[in-house]
Amino acid sequence: MPGIDTLDGLLQAVEEFDTDGYELPVEAAALDRARGSIEESGLLLLGEIHGVKENPLVILGLMRLLGLTHLALEWSENLKPQLDRYLTDGTGLDHPLWWLGDGRVTAGHFAMLRAIPGLTVTLFDGGMNTGDWSQRDALMAERVLAAAGEPMLVVAGNAHTLTSPTELGLPMGACLASARPSLASVRIDYGRGDFYNIEPRQIRQHSVVAGLRATDDGLVVGLPEFGEAMVPHLPVELLQERLNL
C-alpha cells in the first residue's frame, strides 16, 4: 500500500528508493530553452501531478542536467527546520505536516534531496489555505522571488506553474513570469499509470514521448508509464490530534 503510516516504514521506503536507475532523455533544443530560462530569469518551473513515483527522479534529472543546487518545493515553509534536521542527521520526519497524504511529499523526494551535493532547498507554501486561490499563488510567488538569489528549479502542482491566467485564477507561474518575463515552465506529461493523492488513483491517457522535449505549447517531460509514490499519510483524526486542531 503506497500510503505509509509509520515512521519506520517511511525511512525504509526512502532507503529503498533508487536515485541512480533513472535517466532523463533530453532533446537538445528543449535543454537549450531550459538553460535559457535559468540564465535569463534565474528560474525554471516544473509542474507535476502530486503522488507519482517518478516525479522526484524528473526533478533530479533536471537539477543535474542544468547544474543546479537550489530547489524550491511546494511544501509548507513551517517544515524547513524539520527538513534541515533530516538532511543533517536523518531525523525530523515525525512532524505531522509531512503526513497529510496529498502526494506533494513522498519517500522519493527525501531520497532525491539527499542525492544532490551542496543542495539549498526553499519551501514556499505558507501552510495555511486562505480560501483565495489566486492570493495563495501570489504569496507563493513572493516567497520564490524572495529566495531567488541563485538559479533555481521551482516545483509545484501543474495548476500553479502555468504562466498565464486560468479558470482557477492567476497562478503562481503567471505572477513569476510578470516579474521575470523570460521564465519558462516545464509540464510533466503523464501517459498511463497510478498515483497516490489521499488515496490510490489512476491516469489512462494517450501514449506520450519519453523525456524532455519542446512542443508548440512549451517544454514537456513525457512519462509514458509511471507508478504510485510511497506517500506518508496518517488518518485525519490522528493528524488533527497531533496538530492540536
Radius of gyration: 17 Å
Shape: globular
Main sheet record:
8 strands, mixed
What is the helical fraction, as a range of percent? 25-40%
Provide the CATH top-level class: Alpha Beta
Count of the domains:
1
Ranges where pLDDT stays below 50 over 5 or more residues in a row are none
Enumerate how many helices there are, as a single number: 8
Note the topology.
Blueprint: E1 3-4, H1 7-16, H2 28-41, E2 43-48, H3 55-66, E3 70-76, H4 80-89, H5 107-114, E4 120-125, H6 133-147, E5 152-157, H7 172-179, E6 184-197, E7 199-204, E8 211-215, E9 218-226, E10 231-232, H8 236-242
Parallel strand pairs: 1-10, 2-5, 2-6, 3-4, 3-5, 6-9
Antiparallel strand pairs: 6-7, 8-9
Helix pairs in contact: 1-5, 3-5, 6-7
What would you note in describing this structure?
The chain has 245 residues and is an alpha/beta fold. It has a single domain, classed as Rossmann fold, CATH 3.40.50. It has eight helices and ten strands. The protein has helices at residues 7-16, 28-41, 55-66, 80-89, 107-114, 133-147, 172-179, 236-242; strands at residues 3-4, 43-48, 70-76, 120-125, 152-157, 184-197, 199-204, 211-215, 218-226, 231-232. Strand 6 and strand 7 form a beta hairpin. Helix 1 crosses helix 5 (107-114), helix 3 runs parallel beside helix 5 and helix 6 (133-147) packs across helix 7 (172-179). The chain is globular. The chain starts with a strand and ends with a helix. The mean pLDDT is 94.
